[in-house]
Design goal:
Strand content: under 5%
Structural class: mainly alpha
Number of strands: 0
Order of helices and strands: HHHHH
Radius of gyration: 28 Å
Largest sheet: none
Shape: flat
Number of helices: 5
Length: 111
């Protein structure tokens, strides 16, 4: 992993007008490393990736409200409550699908 000081040096030399190749030569690092940090923001601690969604994201508000009300509530209890809610949602969705299921068209056989 590249040190923070090296990343800061890459950005500083870029601002001084040096090319990527010249920066790599001056710092004694590979050009691909310079390319990686060339368009970086000046904050080397900022992650270069977006936060991925978690499985609990749809339930985050519910979990927060339950823990605000009952801070001693164990995680397995919350899991059971959420799992029950998910099963109810699945049952409702299944009921909706059976009501609005497309009708099958009859097949015609060729002679």
């Amino acid at each position: 992993m590249t040190e923070v000081a090296t990343i800061v040096d890459i950005v500083r030399l870029k601002e001084q007008g040096l090319s990527k190749r010249a920066v790599a030569r001056r710092l004694g690092i590979c050009r691909t490393t310079v390319n990686k940090y060339w368009s970086e923001s000046t904050d080397p601690y900022k992650p270069r990736y977006a936060r991925r969604p978690h499985l609990i994201d749809p339930y985050r508000d519910y979990i927060t409200s339950r823990l605000d009300k009952y801070p001693e509530l164990p995680a397995y209890r919350l899991y059971k409550e959420i799992k029950k809610g998910v099963s109810e949602i699945r049952a409702h969705r299944a009921a909706l699908r059976t009501v609005s299921a497309p009708t099958k068209t009859p097949r015609i056989q060729a002679l």
